[in-house]
Design a protein that fits this description.
Elements (H helix, E strand, L loop, with lengths): L5 E3 L5 E3 L7 E4 L4 E4 L3 E7 L2 E6 L8 E10 L10 H4 L2 E2 L2 E2 H15 L2 E10 L2 E10 L9 E10 L2 E10 L3 H13 L9
Antiparallel strand pairs: 1-2, 3-4, 5-6, 6-7, 7-13, 8-9, 10-11, 11-12, 12-13
Length: 188
């Protein structure tokens, strides 16, 4: 079996240079997205789509949620200054995106670890990494990765949650998901 070389991503996750083909494709009328291996759709609602992630080697199951967070402002609206635009995604300030994660973590008894701006698969992404402690439900620490990106005039949020032992694999899969994310054009 040939080996693939790996390259280090910004978060020190080794990503294979040759991506594996997805086992399935997710369709819900708004999205047509190849799913990473071991991801399967679990539910769809007005607030978003949820996925089950079955990590290899018997690690605990992980979850992902994809949702439309906001519509980008109309082109003829008042435009922020270029220095402000660098701190925004689709017209939404990074501080507002980070605040939504902080609020979620307060409710879950967790905390924010880090945030950063990145480019993944040609998409500008604001990522917030958070953590919740072990409890009777999860039995181990949970790492949450929140990825925010703007595509076709919409700001999307992809949230993954996994046990700390499966974090690198889930993060690599989430980044593959974002790099192939091409939702259908919004109906006007």
């Amino acid at each position: 079996m040939p080996t693939t070389q790996a390259k280090s991503a910004d978060n020190h996750v080794a990503l294979p240079t040759a991506l594996s083909l997805p086992e399935s494709v997710y369709r819900d009328g708004t999205f047509v997205i190849p799913l990473p291996n071991n991801w399967s759709a679990s539910s769809t609602s007005k607030s978003g789509s949820s996925f089950r992630i079955e990590p290899p080697n018997g690690a605990p199951e992980a979850q992902a949620t994809l949702a439309v967070l906001a519509l980008a402002p109309v082109a003829n609206a008042v435009q922020p200054l270029p220095s402000e635009q660098r701190k925004m995604l689709g017209g939404v300030a990074f501080t507002d995106l980070r605040r939504t994660v902080i609020d979620k973590m307060i409710n879950a008894g967790g905390w924010v670890v880090n945030d950063r701006q990145r480019e993944i698969g040609g998409h500008r992404v604001f990522e917030v990494i958070a953590q919740t402690p072990a409890n009777s439900d999860t039995k181990s620490d949970q790492v949450w990765n929140f990825y925010f990106t703007e595509i076709n005039g919409r700001v999307y949020s992809l949230t993954t949650r996994s046990a700390s032992g499966a974090t690198e694999k889930v993060a690599a899969d989430a980044e593959r998901f974002i790099s192939t994310f091409r939702p259908l054009e919004p109906k006007r």
